[in-house]
Amino acid sequence: MGITVTSKSASPTRVSPGNNRPRRLPPAQVWLGPAGVTLLLWLTSPNRISGIQILAAFLLLLFPWWSYHHWRQSGFRGLPLFSAAAALYWLYFTVQLFWGDRHISSWGKSRVVSDAAVTEVMLLVVSGMFFLWLGMRSTAGRLVALKRFPEISMTPWSVLYVQGVAVAGTLMAAYESFVSAGGAGAREIIAILQGTVSLTAVLILLRRVMDGKAGKFEKALLLGIVAIRILLGVSSGWMGAAVGLGFCCAVVYLHKHRRLPIAIMAFMLPYVLFFQAGKQAFRDVFWHGQTQANPIEKVEFWVDASLQSWEEALRQPTGAGTAYLLSYSLSRTSLLTQAANVFDLTPNIVPYQNWHLYSYMAVALIPRLFWPDKPSMNEANQFYQVAYGITRERDLGNVSIAVGTLVEGYISFGWLGAAMVMFLVGVLLDFWNETFLAGSGTFLAAGIGIAMMPQLLGAESQMAQYASGIVQHVFLTLVVFFPVTRWRLSQRARAGVSTPALAPSGFRGQAVSPNRATTLGHVSHVREPGA
Question: Which of 164, 258, 271, 518 has the greatest number of beta carbons closer than 10 A?
C-alpha cells in the first residue's frame, strides 16, 4: 500500500514499496550529455590530449551527470551531494586539461609539467570519485546520523529573532574592526558569527520567501541583506564570498523545487570571468597599497579595472589577449598543474609525508579562544608551498595556496592515502546529508546544512582546513539560535523506522520508507515547524 507525497513546488510523487526497484535512465539522457560536452571541449582545445585523458574527462562528467538524474528519479532524498562534489572536481581538473596551459612556477622558474603526470592526476581523480561514492554508499555516515535535533518554531517572535541574526551578522561584516576585536580567539568566533551563523539566518528567511510565508517587509529586508553581503564580499577583494552566497541560494532553490536554478548558475560563470581580469589590479591598490576607500568605491574600481582589461583584450585582432584572460581565469579554479607538479616530485624528490600534514586535526576541535597559541591550520599549506617550490619561505605571510584534499592524501600515503581520504570524506557527506538535509524537516537543520556546503564540497582545501572548525561552526550556530528552538526526535526516530540503505544521490534506485517525512514540510500530513 503506497502513500502520496504532496509537494508545494512540484507535482505529487507517489512512493510505494512495490516500485522502489531501480529505474533505468534513457541512454541518451545519461551518456550523450557528458559525451557531447567532452567532445566539444576536445575539439576546441589547443592542447594535446591523449585517449586516456579524454576517457578520464568523460568519466568525471558522467559521474555527476548520472548521479543527479538518478537522484531526481529515486525519491529526492536529501541533496545530491555526490553529484555536487564530483562536478566541482570536474571543474577543477578537466576544464584546464582542455583549455588551460601546463605551466607552473616552481622554485622561481616556470616549467611545463609532464604529460605523464597529467595522465596520472586524471586517473587519481577518477579513482578518488569512486572511493568518494563508495564512502557514501557504505551507509556508515547515516548509521551515526543524529536522531535528535532542534527546530525553530516560526512564531512572529522567532522570525524577528532570525531577521535580527541576519542583520547583525551583515553589520559585523560591514565593520572590519569587529574582526580584529578581542584577539585571535575572539576573531575566530566573530568570523563564525558573521559567516556561518548569519548565512544560516539568511537561508532560513530565503526559504520562507520561497514557501510564500514572508510578507513584503521580510522580502525587502532579505533583498537588502543579500545585496549588502554581495557588495561587501566583492569590495573585500575575494570573489568567493559572492560566489558562495550565490551557491547557497541556488542550493536552497534546489532543496525546495528539486531542480537546478539555471539562471543563478548561468550568472556565476560570467561573473567570475569578468572580475578575475581586474582582481590583481584591485589587490595591488587596496591590499598592498593600503588605499582607503568605501565599499562602493572599491567595487567601482574593480569594475573599471576588469572592463579596461577586457576592452584591451578584445581589441587585439589575433585574439591572444582574450585567450590569455580566459586561461588566467581558468587557472584560478584549477588544481591540475599543481597536482601534476606533485606527481613529478613525489616521492623521488619530496618523500611521502605520512601523518605529518594531518597533525593539526588533533587540535582543531579546541577553539583558539582557549588556546591562543594553537598551531595554525595553514601549516599544512605552508609545507606544501615550500616543499614543492610554489612559494619562497619568506613570502608565506603574503600568500596561502592549497592543493586539495585528494592530492594531499597522495602526498601523505600515495594512491592508498588518496583512496582512504576520499572514502572518509564520502562517509562525512553521507552523515551530513542524512542529519541536516534528508530527514530533519526543520528550517534550522537545512539552513546549517546548506550554509556549510561550500566548505564541505570544496575541492581546493586541504584536510586541516576541510575538517577543522566544522563542529565549532555547528555548535555556535545552535547556541545562537537556542532562544527560538526546541528539540524533538526526528520523524524517522519517532516512528521507530530505521533508514534503509540508500545509494548516495543515485547510481541505484533508492528505497523510501513510507513512514519518513521529506524535508521542510513537503509531506502534506506532516506538520511544518511553527504551524
Answer: 518
For residue 72, the model assigns a pLDDT of 83
pLDDT at 289: 83
The confidence score (pLDDT) of residue 258 equals 85
pLDDT the model gives residue 463? 78
- Contact between 139 and 429 under an 8 Å Cβ cutoff? The reply is no
| Residue 228 burial (C-beta neighbours within 10 Å; 0-12, 13-18, 19+) | middle
Query: What are the contacts of 173-180 at 24+ separation with CB within 8 A?
Result: 173/198, 173/229, 173/232, 174/228, 174/232, 174/295
**How do strand 109-112 and strand 13-15 relate by DSSP bridges?**
unpaired
d(CA 1, CA 16): 7
Of all helices (H) and strands (E), which one includes residue 479?
helix 470-481
Low-confidence ranges of the chain (pLDDT < 70): 1-27, 75-76, 107, 176-185, 364-365, 367-370, 377, 439-441, 466, 468, 487-531
Alpha helices, DSSP H, located in 50-148: 51-73, 81-99, 115-137, 140-143
Cell of 449: 546544512
Domain extents in the chain = 165-331
Sign of torsion, CA 15 16 21 27?
Answer: negative
65-68 long-range contacts (CB < 8 A, ≥24 apart) are: 65/30, 65/33, 65/34, 66/25, 66/30, 66/506, 66/507, 67/133, 67/504, 67/505, 67/506, 67/507, 68/505, 68/506
Res 9: pLDDT: 37
Q: Can you give the pLDDT at residue 488?
A: 55
Task: Give me the residue label for grid cell 557514501.
Answer: 136
Q: For residues 133 and 141, what is the distance between their CA atoms, to the nearest angstrom?
A: 12
Taking alpha carbons only, the member of 83, 194, 22 closest to residue 433 is 83
State the sign of the Cα–Cα–Cα–Cα dihedral 193, 484, 153, 158. Answer: negative
The torsion angles phi and psi of 462, rounded to 5 degrees, stand at: -90, 165
Rounded CA separation 493/440 (Å): 10
pLDDT value of position 161: 95
Angle, CA 429 vertex, CA 23 and CA 378 arms, to 5°: 150
Does the CA dihedral 78-81-83-87 come out positive or negative? positive
The Cα 61–Cα 129 span in angstroms is: 11
Amino acid at 128: G
What's the CA dihedral at 410, 431, 260, 86 to 10 degrees?
A: 10
How far apart, in whole angstroms, are the C-alpha atoms of residue 392 and residue 109? 12
Q: Whole-angstrom Cα distance, residue 381 to residue 403?
A: 8
What are the pLDDT digits (tens) for 476-492? 999 999 999 876 554 44
Q: Are 444 and 204 in contact (CB under 8 A)?
A: yes
CA distances 465 to 84, 120, 214, 379, 460, Å, are: 19, 25, 36, 10, 10
pLDDT at 132: 97
pTM reported for the whole predicted model = 0.83
Q: What is the pLDDT of residue 2?
A: 38
**Which residue shows C-alpha cell 588518496?**
418
